[in-house]
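TL;DR need structure tokens for one chain.
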Amino acid sequence: MRLLGLFLLTELLFGHRKPKLPVALEQIVQNEPITARAHVGMRVVEIRTGKVLYERNPRSWFVPASNTKLYSTALALTRLGAAHRFETQVVADGQDLRLIGGGDPTLSGRQYPYERDAEWRDGAAAIEELADALVAKGLKRVEGAVIGDDTRYVWDPVPPGWGADDGLYEYGAPVSALMLNDNAVRVTIRPGATAGQPAELALNPAVEYFAFQNRVVTGEAGTPARVRFERPPGSREVWLAGTIAAGAAATEEILAVDEPARFAAQALVDALRRRGIEVRGGAGVRHRFEGDAMPCDRCEVLASRQSPPLGQIIQVVNKVSQNLHAEIMRREGGGAEAMKALFAAAGVPDEDTYLVDGSGLSRLTLVCPESSTKILLHLWNSPEREAWLQSLPVGAQDGTLENRFKGFAEAGRVKAKTGTLTHVAALAGYLDHPKRGMLAFSVMVNNFNGSSAKARAVIDRLVMTLLDY
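>> reply
TL;DR here they are.
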């Protein structure tokens, strides 16, 4: 850093010419208050030659936030392939039906393949299809229960380092091998016809799981919406209060469910009963703990559903930064041991990463700019390159970069994964340079004191500055 400071001083004293790339980037970092006192790391590699064009703290550890998803999706894609599909089954197990989760995160209202402006559809549509298949199979009655079975994974729904209240919200929904609607309920709140009337609630999916106390009232036209909810951790009681103006647009809250497999089982119970099929035992759940064996040797498969291909699934993971899906990618890719093999193939030393989750929601996860660029280079040279590139947000166009790089004419040259937590901002991916070809880059900023938007704006300037060289 002292040598770089001498370069910078020389440029300021003697140069009216354009500064060299390291000096130009360092000027941006040091002249912006949001980054001047922060911990900043960056590495840029020209893919065609392997030449490192710039690096700053390349092997220092940083909290990567959602840049972690690059590691998880890279693992799943290289281990399973873009054509891989997940399967959910309904099996007969004695008097019970078992709804067996196969790690499929697509039983939801999402559109596949990813579409930027697609509306959320019926979150239980996949369950409805399974119910139809059971009716077609001749099912008339369930003497026992419908069991939500997530035994594909050991029951460990909250990765280390997640916040105590993360699990109340969709972004921190518990991890399970059986998922429905991202393990969350979307609550739409609409005003009544006139002021003073109760607001109306609509649930997606419409599953009897939460008990709502609705104290939201319709306010006078033009009144700002003020809706709040309270839900004690571990409780399924939700209190909604506040006002929403007459004639106002609907507002939405998304609440995570505490036991995803039971939630999915309840959705199937509801769907079967609507079709006239009696379910005497209601909904149940089956988890697996360390050392448990969960055989189903005599089970008969009655219905099944396959997911869209993995290449489409990782588009959602990376473009919208979906935490639950990223955790599934890490597990389905083989977990920590398989990740070590990926690192070995990419030339990433073990000591350069400390991954405790797959999404980056944990502040315990640590990586460095060098390890991120090595993963980017490894995927660029893999047979899955095209699916990988299609999963990344594009500057000023879609995903979490839709509103980034807006002031730059060549924003579309950026394909990269974002990452944001309080005091953390990161961006890693590719820049299509008009002269140098594709560049792999990683920028990480930790410990800044100010708005994340300001830190992101500096990162965007750093990346766009590369086009001048």
